Amino acid sequence: MMSEIKLVAVFSGGLDSATMMFGLAQKHKLGPENIHAISFDYGQRHRKELDSAAAICGRFGIWHDIVDLTSITSLLGTESVLVNHNLTMPEGHYAQENMKATVVPNRNMIMYSIAAGIAVADQATMLGVGVHAGDHYIYPDCRPAFMVHLSDTIVSGNTGFLAPGFHISTPFLYTTKEHIARHAYELEDWLPKEFIYLTWSCYKGGDIHCGRCGTCVERVEALYNAGIETGHEDPTAYADTEYWKTVKQDA
Ligand SMILES: [Zn+2]
Hints:
The protein is an alpha/beta fold. 39% of the residues lie in helices and 9% in strands. The chain starts with 6 loop residues before the first strand and ends with a helix.
């Protein structure tokens, strides 16, 4: 019998990957039984995103696994603020030079490689990834060239073992965060339950979104701008609700 899993989604618990996962579900008419969501614990200090991922999958009845990569954190993480708790998290706009401190070496290659293995095991036809154009500036492993080579590598390394028609789906590879936010609002009209509220973006991993780190600024700006057009309101609680307006002007 063929596997019911059609989509293996690399799912951080954040807005981008949640919108990717539900967007692909809508586009390809997938039910929760057709989706396998994979999250990674790489010792990120915003581990709270893993709780968000679990909560969203629980709410929608999606099969969810968290892959434990913490045994390699110390080998990768001495320079990155995402995993080194002694470093100060940079604040400000995502496109600023200091956000390079958030890079974890080869992170996406490691995560996507594992997710591809799971996709082969599940006989899924799609590996879904939520990278977007706004990530390109800082993160080389989110750029189109990398995704093309990754796809070639996975296909050639698994010839004869992949489900027919297998491909990597990157619906936001050439689009902006604001486009994702608009799509998320549309999906909230389609889905019976709210998911934007449950997603987690903040790199600081406090009780609520800080509103000041790179990913918070990006989130609040995108959801605000998309909301003007669509008439939706950002359901997120931010500790600092005004900061993003000031860095927007500086960027
Ligand atoms: Zn934050």
